[in-house]
Input
Amino acid sequence: MSAAAAKSDGTRPVTPVSRYLWVLAALLTLLALTAGSALLKLGSLNTVLNLAISFAKTSLVMSIFMHSTQGRRLTFMVSLLGFIWLAILICFALSDFTTRAVIPAPW
Output
């Protein structure tokens, strides 16, 4: 059965189990990287590294388990706009945090 015939039937193609196992291995590797990066003294780069790893894990989950790449264009657009909105919120939070004055603790 061709892909066009499968779409006209309303059925969706079946994802092979091997793909899920590869994604599981990738997610476990990224989890180990996240745990290992907590032991490194990188300063402010530690946050950047952990956010990059988190973005990679989120992208894997969205594309494989939520099937956002196989869905309609509207689904992909909403997912992309969600990431853009998250980036805007992170930028606003970081700009607020970096412009505050440091007040020492009173004790």
Q: What stands out?
A: The mean pLDDT is 83. Residues 73-98 form the longest helix (26 residues).
